[in-house]
Amino acid sequence: MEAAARRRHPGAAGGPGAQPGASFLQARYIPFFLILFMYFSGCFTPTKAESSMPGAALLLVVPSGLYYWYLVTEGQIFILFIFTSFAMLALVLHQKRKRLFLDSNGLFLFYSFALTLLLVALWVAWLWNDPVLRKKYPGVIYVPEPWAFYTLHVSSQH
Question: Which residues form a coiled coil (predicted)?
């Protein structure tokens, strides 16, 4: 038994230097998205007049959407992100029936998530036929990491 343990590579699965699996990496983002959703659930107002965003806040939606795009693609947490987005949309539709509207903070988060979803869709569509990335990310849900794209296509040109 000890000989088998000594032969095992320290980074092998289950070894002392093993890398965490994908499910663990996704699980560590669950509190983040849960807190975002809880915050979002408190961003409703009974008056439609308060449901607007200042122009400066609209400008900040772009960097926020880019940040979430990077988080979703590099962290490989698309499933968690899409479930949170659908939960937010369902909450908006439910609150709309109660005549409650998103305030500026809720609109900012909702628009950031919508932009992120658009950016992820464009990213996947752009890299859909890349044979190397397709082999690296097999399966039904194909969301390549930006770092993998960079190391494959950009850094090899320098």
Answer: none
Angle in degrees, CA 117, 122, 127, rounded to 5 = 130
The pLDDT tens digits for 124-153 are 999 898 888 888 888 788 888 888 888 877
End-to-end CA distance of the chain: 48
Report yes or no: 69 and 123 within 8 Å, Cβ to Cβ.
Answer: yes
The Cα 32–Cα 142 span in angstroms is 23
Contact criterion met (CB below 8 Å) for 110 and 61: no
* Alpha-carbon separation of residue 130 from 98, 120, 143, 157 (angstroms): 46, 16, 12, 17
CA distances to 39, 141, 152 from 73, in Å:
23, 12, 16
Predicted TM-score (pTM) of this structure: 0.79
pLDDT tens digits, residue range 77-118?
999 999 999 999 999 999 999 999 999 999 999 999 999 999
